[in-house]
């Protein structure tokens, strides 16, 4: 505290403002924009990396542009870590789960579900045939119709 004789009260030196490191501020911004935790941590770890030459450009992006970058990075990571076969198997498992529910219905309703989406007919037909084949008494009439749909698609 310093005293100025021309002022009737003592002058107090204000405490220095708490400043946040730019790295922490950017990490918080990434989180607010929906970045996954692993991306935020990688960004924090690479903050002082001299090879990260475009850091200032990225930090200066608008929220919309940065959000688009986050989406692209997540998509690129997904495609880089999942093979097409794994993605196809995941889709098959989803269709199979749906088919196991659908096969409880009468045959005409099952067929209507299979042909409901022309682009998904082959996958749905295969899933229903697999699900029906798992049953104790598979309905041969249904399996024959599914085979006709599959042949027509090929």
Structural class: mainly alpha
| Low-pLDDT segments, ≥5 res | none
Number of domains: 2
- SSE succession: HHHHHHHH
| Quaternary structure state of the chains depicted | single chain
Number of strands: 0
What characterizes the major β-sheet? none
Q: Into which percent range does the helicity of residues fall?
A: 55-70%
Distance between the termini: 87 Å
Number of helices: 8
Mass-distribution shape: elongated
Strand content: under 5%
Radius of gyration: 30 Å
- Average pLDDT reading: 85
Topology:
Layout: H1 22-32, H2 37-46, H3 55-59, H4 63-81, H5 84-102, H6 107-115, H7 121-133, H8 140-153
Report on this model:
With 154 residues, the protein is an all-alpha fold. It folds into 2 domains: 54 residues, no CATH class; 70 residues. Helix 1 packs antiparallel against helix 2 and helix 6 runs antiparallel to helix 7.
């Amino acid at each position: 505290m310093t005293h100025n004789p021309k002022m009737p009260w003592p002058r107090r030196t204000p405490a220095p403002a708490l400043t946040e490191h730019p790295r922490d501020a950017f990490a918080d911004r990434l989180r607010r924009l929906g970045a996954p935790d692993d991306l935020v941590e990688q960004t924090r770890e690479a903050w002082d990396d001299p090879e990260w030459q475009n850091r200032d450009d990225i930090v200066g992006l608008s929220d919309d542009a940065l959000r688009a970058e986050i989406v692209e990075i997540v998509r690129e990571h997904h495609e880089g870590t999942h093979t097409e076969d794994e993605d196809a198997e995941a889709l098959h498992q989803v269709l199979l789960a749906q088919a196991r529910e659908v096969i409880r219905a009468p045959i005409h309703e099952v067929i209507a579900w299979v042909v409901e989406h022309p682009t998904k007919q082959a996958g749905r037909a295969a899933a229903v045939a697999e699900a029906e084949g798992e049953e104790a008494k598979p309905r041969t009439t249904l399996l024959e119709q599914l085979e006709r749909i599959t042949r027509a698609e090929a």
